[in-house]
Structure prediction request, 225 residues.
Amino acid sequence: MGLEAQPSFATEAGLPQIHTTSWILWCSSAPDDQASVYEEVDKIFSRGFSFYPELEWKTRYPPPDGHEILGAWRDQSNQAFAFLLDNPGMRPPPGTVPLLLHCAGAKTVIDLFLPEITVLKDQLNQKNGRQKESKRLQGRLKQADTSKSLKHLMALMGPITAIINALALYLRRLPTPSIEFLWFAKTYSLLLASVYMGSLVLLLIFIVLCLCYIGKMGYLLVQKL
Prediction:
């Protein structure tokens, strides 16, 4: 969103009236992203503007104080000036940088570039939104991947399930023993059935946990694409 235009004023350089307006261009703190913003701004002002060297600042319109100058442009007739600046006065969210695009000079000249500046701001907002969503999903993926409770549960159930199922398979292959006492035979049959059922239940629970974990990771990965 562009900042409201400041009142016009006279300059020491002899320009009768200067119209000033500024925009915040949000980008990530990555140097490549900041360089990309500079390239896009330079592309916008390449039509009719040229590089504004520091040697001319004292005799023409100077850049705002208190900012690092990342780029400077002026039109051929010295009626309009543009500066890409840092913005140390703002406290941006972590991982973001608010670059300041400051334009000054004849309003009729500056207005010619407003549509392109608006398009650039919209593109940066969309890009930043995608980056935020990507970071959010990466955080969720990392959290899902490092979930201690689920990992510990699966690590605990895995060996137990394997041991009990191996025991059930071994008991199933054994011949049925001949037991003279009826109560002992019934107890043996009950215990054997319990082992079979327990091994099956544990195996099903372990499979469900694995499917839930894989499903959650897959859902997050699909969202990231």
Q: What stands out?
A: The helical segments are 31-45, 107-110, 114-145, 148-173, 182-224. The CA atoms of residues 157 and 191 lie 21 Å apart. DSSP finds five helices and six strands in the chain.
